[in-house]
Design a protein that fits this description.
The complex is a heterotrimer of chains A (about 650), B (about 525) and C (about 100). Chain A is mainly alpha-helical and about 650 residues long. In chain A, about 70% of the residues lie in helices and about 5% in strands. A two-stranded antiparallel ribbon of chain A has the order 1-2. A two-stranded parallel sheet of chain A has the order 3-4. In chain A, helix 1 packs antiparallel against helix 4, helix 10 runs antiparallel to helix 15 and helix 11 packs parallel to helix 14. Chain B has one domain. A three-stranded antiparallel beta sheet of chain B has the order 4-3-5. Chain C is mostly helical. Chain C has a single domain, classed as Helix Hairpins. Chain C contains three helices and no strands. The longest helix of chain C has about 30 residues. Chain C is elongated and about 50 Å long. Classes of the chains: A mainly alpha (about 650), B mainly alpha (about 525), C mainly alpha (about 100). Chains in contact: A-B, A-C, B-C. Chains A and B meet through strand 1, helix 5, helix 6, helix 23 and helix 25 of A and helix 7, helix 9, helix 10, helix 12 and helix 16 of B. Chain A: One of its GO terms (molecular function) is NADH dehydrogenase activity.
C-alpha cells in the first residue's frame, strides 16, 4: 500500500480538477464527490498507516520515489513522498477532520449557489496539504506550501462579493508571501551549502556537520520565518483574524486544524537543523511563548466569536511552537497537542458555525446568550471542546497541554521559568477567554428577541430565530467532540503517540531530566489557574448582564481588540502600499487616492513612477537611452578589461 | 585577388528555413492570385501547416545532429547544432500557437487586423473597406517571413547573417505592428516607434559588426575570438564593437536600458502580433545572444559578466517596479516581459554549462504563457451601448470580476499569470529554478539572490490581476463595461495548448529538460 | 591620405547620423539619420576590407544596401500612413503610448 501512497494526493486533486472542469454540470452531485474524495484519501491513509504500524519501529521511515522532477545539472530534485510516523499522523488528521468538515459543509453551504466550487477548493486544499506533509524534500514541500496558500486564499475570499473579505484574502496572501520568502531563502542556502534539499540529504549533512553554525542558524531562522508566516505567529500573526472572513468550515479546516499547523510541522521536520543551532531553537521557543500570550490576550478582547477563536488558535499554536522549540523533549508533545487541538478546535469552529447558522450569520457574541436551550447538541459538543481546550481532565487537552507545560519547566537558567511561566499563565487566560465565549454564547440572558415575539420599538436587541442545525452538521461536530473527549487519553495509552513518533522525533529519556518544579505542583497550579479563569469568566459574563455594545475597557483591552495594533503596523508597512497599488492604480488615479495613502505608498510606487517618467513616449529620448546604455556598457567593459 | 569558391550548401540542414520562407513567398502569391472568397482560408492553412511541417523537419534534423552530427554550413556562415535546433523548435511552437491566435476571428466575424492597411484611420476609404468586408491577408505571409528570419537567427554563425536575419525578422514585424483593426492610431504610433528605434539599434549593431570586422578581419563568430589572440593594441575597437553588437541583440530581447520600445509597441500592436512577437522574437534574439556569448566572447578573453549582470539586474528591477504601477493589461505584460528578459539573462550570465538549456527552457515557459496571456487579452472586449462587441478592454479596471463571469477563461489566465510569477507546478517555476541554478553554478550567487527577491516582488503584480479578476467588483466608471467573448476554435486550441504546456512543463519537465540538456553543445 | 582618414570620416558620419536621430523631430529626418548611420557603416566596412585585403567587407556593404532599401520601403510606408492619419510626421506628436 505504501507504494500507492501517491493516491493520497491524487484522489482529492483529481476530484478538484473534475469539479472545476465540469462546471455547472456537476452542481447536482459535486459536493458528494468532494466528500467521497476526502473520505477516499482517508481510507488510503488508514491502509498505509496500518501497514506501517505492522512494521518494527525502526523500519517505519519510507521514501517513495515518484519521478525525477527537475533535473538541473548536478542539482536535481526528485518528486518523492516521505512516509513515516510524523507524516502519517498528519495524513490521518487531515483526511479524518477534513472528511468531517466536508460533510459538515454540505449542510453549511447548502444555500450557496457556488457550493460545487467550494468543494473543489476544499479538495484542492486537502491535496495540497497532504503534499505538504508527505513531501520528501523542501522543494516539494514548498509546492504544497504554496498550494495550501492558494487554496486558503481562494477560500477566504470565497464570498468575494464582499469587498472586505477580498481585502482579508489579499492580506493573508501578502503576509504569507513574506513567510514564503523565508522558506525560499532557506532552500537557497541549503542548495548553496550542500547542493540538495531532500530531507534525507539535509539531515545527513547536518548530522555530519557539513554546515557551519552560522549557516545552520541562518537556515533555521529562515525556516522559522516561513513557519511563522504560515502558522500566524508573532510578528506575522495579523492575517489570521481577517482570514475568518471565509466560510466557517474553512476556518475550521484550514485556520484551525491543518494549514496553520504547517509551521509546527516544518519545525519538527527540520528538527536536526534546529538542534544544530541553539540560537535558532531559542528563537523558536521565544516566539512560541510570546505568541501564546499575545493570542490569548487577543482572544479575550474580541466580541466576534470567530475572531476570538482565531486568537485562541494563535495561542494554542504558540504552545506547539514553544514545545517544538524546547528540543527533543517537546517534539512529540507539540505534535500530540497539534492532533488534539485539531479535533477540539475544529469542533469549536464548527460549533461556532452552527451558532452563526442559527443566528442569521451574526458573529457578535454580545448578541447571543442563553442559546443552550435552543441548541442542545451544539451546546453539549461545544462544551466538550471547551473543557478540552482548557485542559480539564480527562478531556484531551489536559493530556497534551499539560505535557507541554511540564516540559517548559525543564531546563537551566532563566528559560524554564520564563517559558514555564508563560505556558502556565497562558493556561489560565485560555480558561478565561474560552469560558467567556462559552458563557456569552450559551448562558446568561438572551440578548436577542425571538422572531414573532412582541418587541418594544426601542429595543436594541436583534430579532433572531435560533434553531438547532441539521444532522449533517451536528454529526461531524459530535464526532469531533468525542475526539475532544477521548483522544488525549487514547493516545497516551501504552507508549502512545510519543512512542509512535519516536523514529522521527528521536528518543528522549524523560526520566533523566527534571523540571525545576515538581510535576504535581505544576499540574495542580495549572488546574487552579484554569478554575480561576472559569470562575472569573462566570462572574463577569455568566452571572452579570452583558451590554449589547462593548464597554470602552482598559487600555490593554482596547489594544487587544485591535490585535495590539498589528494591523496598523502592517498597514503602514505592507497593506497601505499594497492597497494603494491594487486599488488606486487599477482604478486610474482618480479614485480613492487621498493624501495619507499617497504618503505611505512606499518606494515601489515611487520607483515605478520614476520608471513611468523615463517612459515618456518620445522616440528620441528612447534612442538617447539606448545610446546611453551603449556608452555605459562600453565603459564598464573597458574598466573591467583593464 | 582571391578567387571565388562556391560554398557547398547542405540543403537538408536548411530545409526548415526554406519551408517557412518558401511558404511566405507562396503566401504573397496567394494574396495576389487566389480569389478573395477563399484567399483567407488558404493563407491560414498555409500559415498553420508551414510551421508544423518545419517543426517536423527540425525534429528530423535533431535526430541527425544531436549526439555528434553538429556542423557548420554554407562556408561556416550557419551552424547547425543543438542550441540552434532547440531554439528553432521553440520558435516554431510559438509560431503555431501564435498564428492560430492571429487567424482567429471573433464570434461576429471580426478579425484582429485592419481591413485595409493602407487606409487612413477614420477615413471614408477605411469605412468602405470595412463595409465591403475586405481582409488584409498579407498578414500571414508577413508573419511567415518574419518567422523565417527568426529561424535563421539561432543558426547565424557570422555577423553578416546575423544582421540580415535581424532585419528579416524585424521588417515584417514593423508592418504587422501597424495593422491593428481597432485603435489604429495607437497601432501606427507603435509601428513608427518600433521602426525608428529598431532601425536605430540595427545601425548600432551594424557599426559594431564593422568594428569587429576591422578588428579581426573576419565576421565569423568563432574567428573573432581567435583573432583577438593575435591582434595587439586594438582592444578598444573590439570592446566598442562587441558592445554595439550585443546592444543590437539586447534591444530585440527588450532588456533595460534598451527596452523603451517594448511597452509602447506591445501596447499598440495588434494583440495577437504582440503575443507572437513577445514570445518568438525574444527567443530568437536570445538564441543569437547565446551564440555570441558562448562562441565568440570566450576568445576575447575579457569578462562580459559585469555588463550582463548590470543589464539583468536593471531589467528585473525596472520591469518589476514599472509593471506594478501600470493600468493597462498589455502594458503590464510588456513590462513583465522586460523583467523576464532579465530573469532569462540570469541563466547565461555566468556562461555556465547548463546556461543554454536553462535559458531555452525559460524561454519556452515564458513564451507559452505569453502567447496564452495575450490570447486571453484578445477575448476580453468592451461593449458599446447596443451590446455590440468593440475593442479590447485593456484597462485593468475592466477586468474586475471577470472570474465570476467567465471562470474558465479567468482560470486559464490565472495559470499563465502564475507561471509568469514562478509559482510551483507551473512551467515558470521550473524555468526560474533551472535559470537560477545555472547562474548559481557559475558562482553568480548575489545575482541569484537579487533575482529571487525580484521574482517575489514581481509575483505581486501578477497576483494583483488575479485578485482583480476574482475578488473585485467592476466599478462604476467612465469606461465601458467589459465582457469576454467566446473564443474561436483556433484561439481555443491555442489556449488549450499553451495551458497544457504550462502545466505539463511545471509538473513533469524532465523529458524536455533532458532533451535540452543534450542540446547544450555549440559547434565551433 | 591614409585609410585611417576614411575610418575617421565613417565615425564622424555615424555620429552625425546618431545626433540626427536624437535631435530631429521630423520622422523622415530621423530616418535619414539612421540611413546615414548605415552608410557610415558601409564606409567603415569597405575601408576595413581594404585594410585586411579581403572582399568580405565589400560584400557586406552590398547586403547592407539591400537591407537599407528594404528598410526604406517599410519605413516610408509607415511614415506616410501616419501622415495621412495625423497630417504630421513629428515623432514628438504621436505620444499616446507612454508611461
Amino acid at each position: 500500500m505504501i507504494d500507492y501512497s501517491w493516491l493520497l494526493v491524487a484522489i482529492p486533486l483529481a476530484s478538484a480538477a473534475l469539479l472545476l472542469l465540469l462546471g455547472r454540470r456537476a452542481d447536482a452531485w459535486g459536493h458528494l464527490l468532494g466528500v467521497l474524495a476526502a473520505a477516499g484519501a482517508f481510507v488510503v491513509g488508514l491502509l498505509v498507516f496500518l501497514e506501517v504500524m505492522g512494521q518494527p519501529s525502526e523500519d517505519r521511515i519510507h521514501d517513495v520515489f515518484l519521478y525525477s522532477w527537475i533535473p538541473a545539472g548536478d542539482l536535481h530534485i526528485d518528486a518523492g513522498l516521505r512516509i513515516d510516523p510524523l507524516s502519517l499522523t498528519f495524513v490521518l488528521l487531515i483526511t479524518f477532520v477534513g472528511t468531517l468538515i466536508h460533510i459538515y459543509s454540505i449542510g453549511y453551504m447548502a444555500h450557496d449557489a457556488a457550493r460545487r466550487r467550494f468543494f473543489a477548493y476544499l479538495n484542492l486544499f486537502v491535496a495540497a496539504m497532504l503534499l505538504l506533509v508527505l513531501a520528501d524534500s523542501y522543494a516539494l514541500l514548498f509546492v504544497g506550501w504554496e498550494g495550501v496558500g492558494l487554496a486558503s486564499y481562494l477560500l477566504i475570499g470565497f464570498w468575494n462579493h464582499n469587498l472586505e473579505y477580498a481585502v482579508a484574502a489579499k492580506k493573508a496572501f501578502v503576509m504569507n508571501r513574506v513567510g514564503d520568502m523565508g522558506l525560499i531563502i532557506a532552500m537557497g542556502l541549503l542548495f548553496a551549502a550542500i547542493g540538495s534539499v531532500s530531507f534525507t540529504d539535509v539531515d545527513a549533512a547536518v548530522t555530519a556537520g557539513a554546515l557551519s553554525t552560522a549557516q545552520v542558524t541562518a537556515v533555521g531562522l529562515m525556516l522559522l520565518l516561513g513557519a511563522v508566516g504560515k502558522s500566524a505567529q508573532f510578528p506575522l500573526q495579523a492575517w489570521l483574524g481577517d482570514a475568518m472572513a471565509g466560510p466557517t468550515p474553512v476556518s475550521a479546516l484550514i485556520h484551525a486544524a491543518t494549514m496553520v499547523t504547517a509551521g509546527v510541522y516544518l519545525v519538527v521536520r527540520s528538527r536536526l537543523i534546529f538542534e544544530a543551532s541553539p540560537t535558532a531553537q531559542l528563537v523558536v521557543a521565544c516566539i512560541g511563548a510570546f505568541t501564546l500570550l499575545l493570542g490569548a490576550a487577543i482572544a479575550c478582547a474580541k466580541d466576534d466569536i470567530k475572531k476570538s477563536l482565531a486568537g485562541s488558535t494563535m495561542s494554542q499554536i504558540g504552545y506547539m511552537v514553544l514545545a517544538a522549540g524546547l528540543g527533543p523533549i517537546g517534539y512529540a508533545f507539540a505534535i500530540f497537542h497539534l492532533v488534539t487541538h485539531g479535533f477540539f478546535k475544529a469542533g469549536l469552529f464548527l460549533g461556532a458555525g452552527s451558532v452563526m447558522h442559527a443566528n442569521g450569520d451574526s458573529t457578535d457574541m454580545r448578541t447571543y446568550g442563553a442559546l443552550r436551550k435552543v441548541m442542545l447538541v451544539t451546546w453539549l459538543t461545544f462544551g466538550a471542546c471547551w473543557l478540552a481546550i482548557m485542559g480539564v481532565p480527562p478531556f484531551s487537552g489536559f493530556y497534551s497541554k499539560d505535557k507541554i507545560i511540564e516540559s517548559a519547566f525543564v531546563g537551566e537558567g532563566w528559560q524554564p521559568w520564563v517559558f514555564g511561566g508563560a505556558a502556565l499563565i497562558g493556561a489560565g487566560v485560555t480558561a478565561f477567554y474560552m469560558s467567556r465565549m462559552f458563557f456569552l454564547t450559551f448562558h446568561g440572558k438572551a440578548r436577542w428577541v425571538e422572531a414573532g415575539a412582541t418587541v418594544a420599538p426601542d429595543d436594541p436587541r436583534p430579532v433572531r430565530h435560533p434553531h438547532e442545525s441539521p444532522l449533517v452538521m451536528t454529526v461531524p461536530i459530535i464526532v469531533l467532540a468525542i475526539g475532544a473527549l477521548g483522544l488525549g487519553f487514547a493516545l497516551t495509552l501504552g507508549n502512545g503517540i510519543t512512542g509512535w513518533l519516536e523514529p522521527v522525533t528521536g528518543h528522549y529519556d524523560h526520566d533523566a531530566h527534571h523540571a525545576v518544579l515538581p510535576v504535581p505542583v505544576i499540574t495542580v497550579t495549572t488546574l487552579v489557574l484554569v478554575a480561576l479563569g472559569i470562575a472569573l469568566a462566570w462572574r463577569q459574563y455568566g452571572m452579570s448582564p452583558v451590554p449589547l455594545t462593548a464597554p470602552t475597557g482598559s487600555a490593554l483591552t482596547r489594544a487587544a481588540r485591535r490585535d495590539f495594533y498589528a494591523d496598523d503596523v502592517n498597514e503602514g508597512l505592507v497593506m497601505r502600499p499594497g492597497q494603494h497599488l491594487t486599488r488606486t492604480l487599477v482604478y486610474a488615479d482618480t479614485a480613492v487616492v487621498d493624501g495619507a495613502v499617497r504618503g505611505t505608498a512606499s518606494g515601489a510606487v515611487g520607483l515605478g513612477q520614476l520608471a513611468r517618467k523615463l517612459q515618456n513616449g518620445y522616440v528620441r529620448s528612447y534612442a538617447a537611452m539606448i545610446l546611453a546604455g551603449v556608452v555605459l556598457a562600453g565603459i564598464v567593459l573597458h574598466l573591467v578589461r583593464m | 585577388m582571391t578567387t571565388f569558391v562556391a560554398p557547398v550548401i547542405d540543403w537538408a540542414a536548411l530545409s526548415a528555413i526554406l519551408v517557412i520562407a518558401g511558404t511566405g513567398i507562396v503566401g504573397v502569391l496567394v494574396a495576389a492570385f487566389v480569389p478573395a472568397s477563399s484567399r483567407r482560408t488558404v493563407q491560414v492553412v498555409l500559415a498553420l501547416v508551414a510551421p508544423l511541417a518545419a517543426l517536423a523537419v527540425v525534429a528530423w534534423r535533431w535526430s541527425v545532429v544531436v549526439g555528434g552530427g553538429e556542423s557548420t554550413l554554407v562556408a561556416g556562415q550557419l551552424a547547425e547544432d543543438g542550441p540552434a535546433l532547440a531554439a528553432q523548435a521553440i520558435i516554431l511552437i510559438f509560431a503555431v500557437v501564435g498564428f492560430a491566435v492571429m487567424a482567429s476571428r471573433l464570434p461576429n466575424g471580426e478579425e484582429a487586423f485592419a481591413p485595409q492597411g493602407a487606409a487612413a484611420p477614420g477615413s471614408a476609404y477605411e469605412e468602405a473597406a470595412r463595409r465591403a468586408g475586405l481582409e488584409q491577408t498579407e498578414v500571414f505571409p508577413l508573419a511567415l517571413l518574419s518567422l523565417a528570419g527568426m529561424l535563421v537567427f539561432p543558426m547565424a554563425n557570422d555577423l553578416l547573417v546575423m544582421f540580415v536575419a535581424l532585419e528579416v525578422l524585424s521588417l515584417p514585424l514593423y508592418v504587422l505592428s501597424a495593422m491593428a483593426r481597432r485603435r489604429r492610431v495607437l497601432s501606427h504610433e507603435a509601428a513608427l516607434k518600433y521602426f525608428l528605434l529598431g532601425a536605430f539599434s540595427s545601425a548600432l549593431f551594424l557599426f559594431g559588426v564593422a568594428l569587429l570586422f576591422g578588428f579581426s578581419g573576419s565576421i565569423s563568430l568563432p574567428d573573432l575570438g581567435t583573432a583577438a589572440a593575435t591582434t595587439v593594441g586594438m582592444d578598444g575597437m573590439a570592446v566598442v564593437g562587441f558592445v554595439l553588437v550585443l546592444t543590437g541583440l539586447l534591444f530585440k530581447v527588450g532588456a533595460v536600458p534598451f527596452h523603451a520600445w517594448v511597452p509602447d509597441v506591445y501596447q499598440g500592436a495588434p494583440t495577437p502580433v504582440t503575443g507572437f512577437m513577445a514570445a518568438a522574437t525574444k527567443t530568437a534574439a536570445f538564441a543569437a545572444i547565446l551564440r555570441l556569448l558562448y562562441v565568440a566572447a570566450p576568445g576575447f578573453g575579457w569578462d562580459v559578466e559585469p555588463v550582463l549582470w548590470a543589464v539583468a539586474i536593471a531589467s528585473m528591477l525596472l520591469g518589476t517596479v514599472a509593471a506594478i504601477v501600470q493600468t493597462d493589461i498589455k502594458r503590464t505584460l510588456a513590462y513583465s516581459s522586460v523583467a523576464h528578459a532579465g530573469f532569462a539573462l540570469v541563466a547565461i550570465v555566468s556562461l555556465s554549462e547548463q546556461g543554454p538549456s536553462a535559458l531555452l527552457f525559460y524561454l519556452l515557459a515564458y513564451g507559452l504563457a505569453t502567447v496564452g496571456a495575450f490570447a486571453v487579452v484578445t477575448l476580453v472586449r468592451e461593449r458599446d451601448a447596443d451590446g455590440n462587441v468593440t475593442g479590447e478592454a485593456t484597462h485593468l479596471s475592466q477586468w474586475a470580476g471577470l472570474g465570476r463571469r467567465h471562470p474558465v477563461l479567468a482560470a486559464t489566465m490565472t495559470l499563465f499569470l502564475l507561471s509568469f510569477a514562478g509559482i510551483p507546478l507551473t512551467a515558470g517555476f521550473v524555468g526560474k529554478f533551472v535559470a537560477f541554478v545555472a547562474a548559481a553554478d557559475g558562482g553568480a550567487w548575489p545575482l541569484v539572490v537579487i533575482a529571487v527577491i525580484a521574482s517575489a516582488a514581481a509575483a505581486f503584480f501578477y497576483v494583483r490581476i488575479i485578485v482583480l479578476m476574482y475578488f473585485s467588483r467592476p466599478e462604476e466608471s467612465e469606461r465601458p463595461g467589459a465582457d469576454a467573448v467566446e473564443p474561436g476554435a483556433l484561439t481555443r486550441a491555442s489556449l488549450v495548448l499553451c495551458a497544457l504546456g504550462t502545466l505539463v512543463l511545471g509538473v513533469w519537465p524532465t523529458p524536455v529538460l533532458d532533451l535540452l540538456a543534450q542540446a547544450a553543445k555549440f559547434v565551433v | 591620405m591614409t585609410l585611417l582618414h576614411y575610418l575617421v570620416l565613417s565615425g564622424v558620419l555615424f555620429t552625425i547620423g546618431a545626433a540626427t536621430v536624437l535631435t530631429r523631430r521630423n520622422a523622415i529626418l530621423a530616418f535619414m539619420g539612421v540611413e546615414l548611420m548605415l552608410n557610415s557603416c558601409n564606409l567603415a566596412l569597405v575601408t576595413f576590407s581594404r585594410i585586411h585585403g579581403t572582399l568580405t567587407g565589400q560584400v557586406m556593404a552590398f547586403f547592407v544596401m539591400v537591407v537599407a532599401a528594404a528598410e526604406v520601403v517599410v519605413g516610408l510606408a509607415i511614415i506616410v500612413s501616419i501622415y495621412r492619419a495625423r497630417r504630421t510626421v513629428s515623432v514628438d506628436e504621436p505620444s499616446l503610448l507612454k508611461n
